[in-house]
Every structure is written in C-alpha cells, then in structure tokens.
Amino acid sequence: MIRKFNYKTKEMLLEHADEVGVRLPFSDDISVLANRVKISDTDIETKNSMTIHPMEGFDSEPDGSPSELTMRRIRRFAEGGAGLIWCEACVVVPEARTSIGQLWIHEENLDSFKRMAETAHELSDGAPVILQLTHSGRVSRPDNNPHPIIAYHNPLMNEKFDIPADYPVATDEYFDSLPEKFGNAARMAKEAGFDGADIKCCHKYLFSELLSAYTREGRYGGSFENRTRLFVDSIKAASVWKDRRFVIASRFGPYDCMPYPWGFGADRDDYLKIDWDEPDRLYDIMYENGVRLVDMTLGTPYYNPHVNRPYDNGGYEPPEDRLVGVSRLIEAAGHMKKHNPDITLIGTGYSYLRKFAPNVGAGAILEGKCDAVGFGRMSFAYPDFAKDILGENGFDDRKTCLTCSKCTALMRKISCTGCPIRDREPYLEIYRKVFEEK
Ligand SMILES: Cc1cc2nc3c(=O)[nH]c(=O)nc-3n(C[C@H](O)[C@H](O)[C@H](O)COP(=O)(O)O)c2cc1C
What we know:
By secondary structure, the protein is an alpha/beta fold. Helix content is about 35%, strand content about 10%.
C-alpha cells in the first residue's frame, strides 16, 4: 500500500519500510549529528553534521543581488544553527536566469554578495557558506518569459516546457564561452567571502542536461567525454581559485530516472534502476579536477519531483511508496560515499521523514552513507531545526515540513517562495495573492 506520512512511532515507520521492501538506517542515538565535519583536504569544517540545501526564493533584486527577502532567508538559516549553509542557485550569465528574481553575481553587485556571506558567517558563528553557481539551460526565463537554452531535443522535457521540435539548440561556440564565466564567478564568490563555489550539475539544468546529450552532434554530444566536457571544463576553470580555505563543490545528480537516451545514469533496459558506470567515472573525474564537496540529489523537479523530493501532496500521486523514494536517495548517497570516500558528501531525502529525520539522518551517517545530512524544504518550514535537534528542547514535530509542495507551487508561478504554512508572515499572504486572488 502506498501511504502518506502517518507514522506515530518508530516501529510503524520501520514496519512500513519493511513492507515496501526497503530498509531505513535508524539510530536512536542522534549525538553524531553534533559532530563537526572536516571538508576533505581543506581547512574548512562544518559546525555540525546538518546542512541547509540550496533553496531558491525567486526574490532577488532585478540586478541579481540579494533582496531584503533573500537576506531574511539567509539570516533565518544562519541563526538556525545548521553546520553549513549552501546558498541557492545564482547564475553566472544573465541570459540563464530562471526569472528576474534569480540571483546573478557580477562585478557591479559584488558588494551585495559580500554582505550575504558576511551576514551568514556572523549569525551562524562561522558556519561555512557555499554559493551555488549555475546555468538554468532550458528553464531560462531572464525576463520572466521562457527563453530556453537547450543542449538537445529531449521530447520528454520539450513537452514539459512546450518547446517545439524545430527550436534552435545552443551552439558549441556558446558552450565554449561558459567555463571562463564559471571560473570568473568562482573568483567573485571567493572575493565575496564565501567558503566555496558549487558548479551545479543536477535537475536537468544545463550541465545536467548535457550529461544525457547522447543525440547531440559535435564536441558536446554523443560520447561520455563530450557530454561531460562543459561541466568538467567549468570545474577546471573554477579550481584555479581553490585553496585550503576555498572549496570547489558540486550539487551533483548522478541519476535522472528517465529512460535512455533522455536521462543520465539510468540502466538502458530498465530506467528505474541506476547504472553507476558513467556516474562513477564522472565522480572520479570531478575529484581529479578539484571537487572536494558534493551535495547529492537525484531526478529532476520538472519531470519526476517525487524522485527528487518525496512528498505527501504535490502535482501528482507518486507512482511508488514515498519511503521507496527516500530510501533511493539515501542508498544512492551510500554508493557515492563508498565509491569515493575522499569527497565529503551531503545526503538528501530527510525532510519527508519529519520527526524521524534526525534518527534516520544519524543512522545514515553512522552507516557511512554520507558525512552530513542536508535539509531543503525543512529549512523553509523550520529553519531552527538544527538548533533544536542539538538543544535541550529537542526537535519539535509541530514545526516540521509537511511536504505539501506549496513552496514549489509558488516557484512554478514564478513568485517569491517560502513556506506559507510554517512561515506565514510573509508567505501566506504571497500564496493567497498568487492562488486565490485571481
Ligand atoms: C522551493 C525550492 C527551491 C529549491 N531551490 C534549489 C536551488 O536553488 N538549488 C538546488 O540545487 N536545489 C534546489 N531545490 C532542491 C532542494 O535543494 C532539495 O534537493 C529538495 O528540496 C529535496 O530535499 P528536501 O527533501 O530536504 O526538501 C529547491 C527545492 C525547492 C522545493
């Protein structure tokens, strides 16, 4: 039976996991979550083993700098006590913004990013702060209208984005120009005081879309080397700025959960299974070229959000039990950690578990499936989760994320987003305006 979250006790949760054929790592002792994590061969250390995933708020100023609402989010994250703050998607070229409200780092607004890093450091008492650098590819809407930049025609994604079959594909020359932009943005992130730059490759944004560009011709399509070229060249360009106090990181998705030839990392005969051959090879290449910190993820929010962030209520009823989705995320991290233990790895899948998130997170770390556990939607709903988990009061079940997908629904309307349920002022009013006052 596919069921929603109504597990009152640990026994009910683990029993249902068993019924649907998965095993969740579960530890009653959660003290491991208090441990600091040294990031690979750097001198950077997290404050504990819980991190904030990158969570976009669609609320930057038109010039790409963080707005008051963006800064409010950063302050809440920093004061919440998480061990590391991974700041949201920030483009390196303006044509690649998902909306006028997406962060964009450039020379003219560098001071605003300095304030962002400074604020996060100050209020978190020194937690490392990473900036996610991205190119939104087919999701590009720089003036809030679609101007997709696509690597190849993927009928499954074209349908989602209403892209006609004769829409022009981005040229090799355009791609050739991008690594320098990522290198430059990494330099700016360092100058602004961030502890690392994330070269994002997940969720079918540009670099991740290229990983499955089997049908593309030229230098960026077909072979494994060609499909990974832009991502790897961008890592190399960013790694110029790497040192013991500045880490090159990646939000990396090894598996799209889409059928061949439209998805990366999927078994060609059964796309519901991961084929680790190419993801493992790429993970090694990432390491060889300087990546030391990965925040892993799977699937894409645009095609199979239930894979990316298991939810109780969302756009469609998931085709699998939610705990199967949670387990896939945890076990995939376990594979990656085992494959290359020298990359510090942040796992995902925990927001769905509500009050059991600390126990399963602690279990995953104790079983060596990841070094730290990341929280996305939970950080919108309950930014103080880490402080409470480690504090005397404990984790408060009444404050957890309910995985209702309202934050995503706002984002899909190209609106500022946050949690209208747990963070009512200002998001309930924003939600009402977007959905009710039509
Ligand atoms: C509203 C919203 C915004 C997000 N923004 C980003 C982002 O900027 N960058 C990114 O890599 N992932 C982003 N994600 C994905 C999350 O980082 C995370 O992978 C996902 O929510 C699953 O984690 P969770 O189960 O803890 O929520 C976003 C997700 C949501 C719902």
